[in-house]
């Protein structure tokens, strides 16, 4: 009789113990959805432990393995497709332009980017009171800028008064020009004009000292000194302006080198027929003028003049002016001292 000791033999395949609760099997199933590679690892470890213990493999571990392999395969497939599409895109961009046949002609150099158009000064004027500029021509696209400043005199400001200042283009007939109209103690600004090619002039109405600069990329400057042209626009004199005020304004314009305004206030009557350019050239060596005026009972204006020259010398003059229609009509001035 043969006695078989079954206690020391491993369980047969048909007699394996049922699967036990296994944390690795649960981890395998959960990780399969989020980190598939961990689901595969935990599933294999769970199955290995079940075989070693003589138990059946956990269904959770098997499911984790299956899902882990599926999701890992899908991830790998998507990655391969994305890389292939990226490479195709780069390759298509690189080969979009076919190679040109060789040529004996030298290669053309890349053209430098266009530089910003240089602005040209078409008009520059300064003075005080009312004034009409000489004409200037705007070319090209017709775009131009008018930069302006105004500041009341010290005497005016000391009275606590605000000064009027305004600019009009072409006597207010230019609808492209946005007229600045100020009332205050001074200021500055720019008027931008677009698409307004042609010839223009500006009219300044002011109770203050002012400056005007007109710039454009293309055009013909207003330069009476260079061309010999004389200002043709009449100055607008406020009604009731005294003869003394006209003479005082005349010398203010001369000191400000605003010769166009001085010409309109009577310089055209004092040039002896020599013309505007010659009359302006007569002040080339004059640095400043101090004029003391007194209005006489007969309507004339007596004046005592001290003119400092650019070389430091001083000349003195005395005489009278006759004013008519808001401008100096005649003068009787004699030099009383200084070099001739």
Topology diagram in text:
Elements: H1 23-34, H2 36-53, H3 59-94, E1 120-128, E2 131-132, E3 136-138, E4 144-151, H4 154-158, E5 163-169, E6 181-184, E7 187-193, E8 198-200, E9 202-206, E10 209-216, E11 219-220, H5 224-227, H6 243-255, H7 259-264, H8 276-281, E12 286-295, E13 301-309, E14 314-324, E15 327-337
Antiparallel strand pairs: 1-10, 2-9, 3-8, 3-11, 4-7, 4-10, 5-6, 5-9, 12-13, 13-14, 14-15
Detailed description of the structure:
- This protein has 340 residues and is α+β, with helices and mostly antiparallel strands.
- Helix content is 29%, strand content 29%.
- The protein contains 8 helices and 15 strands.
- It has helices at residues 23-34, 36-53, 59-94, 154-158, 224-227, 243-255, 259-264, 276-281, and strands spanning 120-128, 131-132, 136-138, 144-151, 163-169, 181-184, 187-193, 198-200, 202-206, 209-216, 219-220, 286-295, 301-309, 314-324, 327-337.
- The strands form 4 sheets. A 4-stranded antiparallel β-sheet has the order 1-10-4-7. The protein has a 4-stranded antiparallel β-sheet with strand order 2-9-5-6, with no helix packed on it. Strands 12-13-14-15 form a 4-stranded antiparallel β-sheet, covered by helices on one side.
- The termini are far apart.
- Mean pLDDT is 79; it is low at 1-9, 93-97 and 225-236.
């Amino acid at each position: 009789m043969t006695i078989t000791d079954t206690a020391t033999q491993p369980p047969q395949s048909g007699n394996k113990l049922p699967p036990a609760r296994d944390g690795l099997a649960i981890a395998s199933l959960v990780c399969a959805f989020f980190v598939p590679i961990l689901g595969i690892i935990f599933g294999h470890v769970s199955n290995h432990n079940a075989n070693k213990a003589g138990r059946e493999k956990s269904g959770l571990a098997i499911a984790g393995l299956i899902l882990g392999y599926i999701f890992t395969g899908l991830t790998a497939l998507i990655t391969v497709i994305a890389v292939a599409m990226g490479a195709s895109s780069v390759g298509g961009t690189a080969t979009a332009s076919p190679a040109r046949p060789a040529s004996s002609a030298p290669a053309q150099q890349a053209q430098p980017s266009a530089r910003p158009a240089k602005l040209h000064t078409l008009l520059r004027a300064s003075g005080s009171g009312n004034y009409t500029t000489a004409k200037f021509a705007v070319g090209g696209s017709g775009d131009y800028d008018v930069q302006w400043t105004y500041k009341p005199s010290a005497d005016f400001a000391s009275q606590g008064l605000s000064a009027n200042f305004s600019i009009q283009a072409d006597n207010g007939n230019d609808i492209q020009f946005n007229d600045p109209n100020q009332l205050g103690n001074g200021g500055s600004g720019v008027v931008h004009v677009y698409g307004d090619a042609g010839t223009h002039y500006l009219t300044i109405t002011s109770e203050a000292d002012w400056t005007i600069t007109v710039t454009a990329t293309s055009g013909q400057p207003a330069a009476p000194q260079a061309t010999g042209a004389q200002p043709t626009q009449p100055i607008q004199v406020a009604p009731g302006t005294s003869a003394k005020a006209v003479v005082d304004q005349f010398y203010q314009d001369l000191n400000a080198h605003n010769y166009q305004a001085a010409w309109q206030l009577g310089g055209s009557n004092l040039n002896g027929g020599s013309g505007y350019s010659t009359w302006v050239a007569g002040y080339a060596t004059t640095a400043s003028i101090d004029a003391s005026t007194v209005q006489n009972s007969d309507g004339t204006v007596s004046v005592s003049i001290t003119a400092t020259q650019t070389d430091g010398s001083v000349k003195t003059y005395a005489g009278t002016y006759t004013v008519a229609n808001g401008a100096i009509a005649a003068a009787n001035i004699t030099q009383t001292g200084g070099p001739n």
